[in-house]
Write a structure and sequence with these properties.
Its main location: membrane. One of its GO terms (molecular function) is sodium-independent organic anion transmembrane transporter activity. It is found in: Cell membrane. Helix content is 61%, strand content 5%. The strands form three sheets. A five-stranded antiparallel beta sheet has the order 2-1-5-4-3, with no helix packed on it. It has a two-stranded antiparallel sheet with strand order 6-7. Strands 8-9 form a two-stranded antiparallel ribbon. A hairpin with a 5-residue loop joins strand 6 and strand 7. With 721 residues, it is mainly alpha-helical. The chain has three domains: 218 residues, Growth Hormone, Chain: A; 217 residues, Growth Hormone, Chain: A (Up-down Bundle); 94 residues, no CATH class.
Length: 721
């Protein structure tokens, strides 16, 4: 009996052990499932965030590609276009503090999804004026628009034009003026871009922190690097989309394209700028959909869990205490509000000492000044680069956008990656990073200096760049537009309907060329008996002319090729210094001040560079205009012709002056770092009481060297360069 009782005891003890083993097995199984669900969830979020980065970069770069189209469509100067471009930064600044502070405490994926919807709404709003402001009207002589009324270009006698036709024309113009006088449709473009800035705000701070919170630590840098890589691809597609839309006429689908008498090479040509915004807006809507189905929290990886609590415990509390769930939420909201108010007061008390500590760091303040001035240079240069290429080299908007998207943007991406790779491969310390950043800026702007020699001369335009006798123009163009050869014609100095004489000179209109007759219609119109158009052999002999301006000189295509080569090398060289400069910024700040320092850095770049640079660059470019267009109701419209030489000196000169000033600040940064470095070649990192840069070992600077390549980011990197 004793043996049997022992056996029974042993049997029951075994039975009591078995459930423990099973529960342990279940625990391991659930942990494995949790790990898979964590990896799956973060990868879904990674894919969605990458698509959002692509969408916002695409819409931002597409705006850059349509700068000249918007200027012509709304008849506004470059300075006003600069204000429209800067409105994105204004919208971003309006809510950046609220989003950064409160966003992390709320449902981050859904806030990003809401941001995508706002961004898409702004993008759609930009395109809306096309559907409300009527068809685009360009200046053309009646005989080139398939007119049934036979009118001589040189109106020597008003009786040549039937009175009823003139009255009808004036009545139509006055009616149109009454309609246009009360509306400035470009305001919708400005408001739409402002909304884009508001919608884009939560994507970067909330998306990156969400990845950093829930990704496995060793994978976080790789994931963030993937997001930034996709962000660089966005501008490529943005400019290519701009190239495609610029080929299509603005009113495609609304007018008979056979009746259009201008070509993409004409300065009055406006492409289907609105079409790309509809596409970009649709992409933004699609990009925001996944975030509405993602959870507020993901299970944290095992190696990143707090030792005192676990995700299983929090899950148990939320699932088992369903009866107290409602009251718990109310208490939580009250505590959250109270906690935020106390945290706000605490942050306010610590703000001024932190700011004083930060601005007391000479390396930080000097690098901040260098960055602000350099970004002024780069933002202004990139914003008006399409306009510069079009006006300087006589290229179409379509070709210009294609070249920038397919050549310049990849060069920038390669430069950014190369900078990180050099930092990792050669294990460069902070002093070396400062040298590399300074060297890339110096050689980049030195290359930019060579572009002064790669410009095209002004086209020969009678009355503007040359006189009617073929000499260089030096007098006031308004008086020089009239000459003896067109003195008998009733011409307006405000018209812009250029024709190309057989002598290779462009005339502002057929009337100012003294043309007496025309043949054909549309693009095939030929003007005859033009008294101002004479060959060099016989200046007094009347000659013919065709519709459209004459082409630039024979040397211009070659100069454009040289410009492209130097521009690509310059973009690469300047981009190489981006990563070392960013690492320099991070290494010379106290660890607890890094987030604050980056916030101040981003704010300063947006306020002091992103907003003003497009405006004053636009004002400077406007000073080089030779012939302004006229609005139908009077007033100055968009510029029709720029002085090529003056445009080159203003555009490149302003860029170089700002770049040179930034180099001086970079030299000062290097001097301070050299002064503070020890003779034993110590590497530099953040330390101590006064925010100086000192270090422990070379290895400490590169504990996570892969992170230098993958996570390098500065404001609007993907669209600004």
């Amino acid at each position: 009996m004793e043996i049997s009782s022992k056996e029974n005891t042993h049997f029951f003890s075994n039975n009591t052990i078995l459930p423990v083993d099973r529960s342990s097995f279940k625990s391991e199984s659930s942990a494995s499932k949790e790990k898979h669900s964590c990896c799956g969830g973060i990868k879904i979020f990674l894919g969605a965030l990458s698509f959002v980065y692509f969408a916002k970069a695409l819409s931002g770069s597409y705006l850059k590609s349509t700068i000249t189209q918007i200027e012509r469509r709304f008849d506004i100067p470059s300075s006003l276009v600069g204000v429209i471009d800067g409105s994105f930064e204004i919208g971003n600044l309006l809510i950046i503090i609220l989003v950064s502070y409160f966003g992390a405490k709320l449902h981050r994926p859904r806030i990003i999804g809401a941001g995508c919807l706002i961004m898409s709404a702004g993008t759609f709003l930009i395109a809306m004026p096309q559907f409300f402001m009527g068809r685009y009207r360009y200046e053309r002589f009646p005989s080139t628009i398939n007119s049934t009324v036979s009118i001589s270009p040189c109106l020597q006698d008003k009786s040549q034009t039937p009175l009823s036709a003139l009255e009808k024309s004036h009545t139509k113009i006055n009616a149109g003026c009454e309609k246009e006088a009360g509306s400035s449709m470009w305001i919708y473009v400005l408001l739409g871009n402002l909304l884009r800035g508001i919608g884009e705000t939560p994507i970067q701070p909330l998306g990156i922190t969400y990845i950093d919170d829930y990704a496995i630590e060793e994978n976080a840098a790789l994931y963030i690097g993937c997001v930034q890589t996709v962000a660089i691809i966005g501008p490529i597609f943005g400019f290519l989309l701009g190239s495609l839309c610029a080929k299509l006429y603005v009113d495609i689908g609304f007018v008979d394209l056979d009746s259009i008498t201008i070509t993409p090479k004409d300065v009055q040509w406006v492409g289907a700028w609105w079409l790309g915004y509809l596409i970009a807006g649709a992409i933004s809507v699609l990009a925001g959909i996944p975030f509405w189905f993602l959870p507020k929290h993901l299970p944290k990886p095992e190696n990143r869990k707090d030792s005192s609590t676990s995700s299983e415990q929090s899950k148990f509390i939320t699932e088992d205490n369903k009866e107290q769930h409602k009251s718990y939420q109310q208490v939580k909201i009250a505590e959250m509000a109270k906690g935020m108010s106390l945290e706000f007061l605490s942050s306010l008390l610590n703000f001024l000492p932190s700011l004083k500590n930060l601005f007391g760091n000479p390396v930080y303040i000097l690098y901040l000044c260098a960055s602000i001035i350099q970004f002024n240079s780069l933002i202004g240069m990139v914003t008006y680069k399409p306009k510069y290429i079009e006006q300087q080299y006589g290229q179409t908007s379509s070709k210009t956008n294609f070249v920038i998207g397919l050549i310049n943007i990849p060069a920038v991406a390669l430069g950014i990656f190369s900078g990180g790779l050099i930092m990792k491969k050669f294990r460069i310390n902070v002093l070396g990073a400062a040298k590399l950043s300074l060297g890339s800026s110096f050689f980049g702007y030195l290359l930019l200096l060579s572009l002064f020699a790669m410009g095209c001369e002004n086209s020969d335009v009678a009355g503007l760049t040359v006189s009617y006798h073929g000499t260089k123009q030096t007098t006031d163009y308004e008086q020089a537009l009239f000459s003896e050869c067109n003195s008998g014609c009733l011409c307006s100095k405000n018209d812009w309907d250029p024709i190309c004489g057989e002598n290779g000179v462009t005339y502002i209109s057929a009337c100012l060329a003294g043309c007496q007759a025309s043949n054909g219609s549309g693009e095939n119109t030929v003007f005859f008996n033009c008294s101002c158009v004479g060959t060099l052999e016989s200046p007094s002999q009347s000659s013919s002319a065709v519709v459209g301006p004459c082409q630039k000189g024979n040397e211009c295509p070659k100069m454009f090729l040289y410009f492209l080569v130097v521009s690509v090398i310059t973009s690469y060289t300047l981009s190489v210094g981006g990563t070392p400069g960013y690492i320099l910024l991070l290494r010379c700040i106290k660890p607890h001040l890094k987030s604050f320092a980056l916030g101040i850095y981003t704010l300063a770049i947006r306020v002091l560079a992103g907003i003003p640079a497009p405006v004053y660059f636009g004002v400077a470019i406007d000073t080089t205009c030779l012939k302004w267009g006229s609005k139908r109701c009077g007033g100055r419209g968009a510029c029709r012709l720029y002085d090529s030489s003056a445009l080159r000196y203003v555009y490149l000169g302003l860029t170089l002056v700002l770049g040179t000033v930034s180099i001086f600040f970079s030299v000062a940064v290097l001097w301070v770092l050299r002064k503070r470095s020890s003779p034993q070649d110590e590497t530099l990192s953040a330390n101590g009481e006064r925010g100086t840069c000192g270090t422990k070992s070379r290895k400490d600077n590169f504990v996570n060297s892969d992170h230098l390549i993958q996570t390098t980011y500065w404001p609007e990197k993907e669209t600004r360069l």
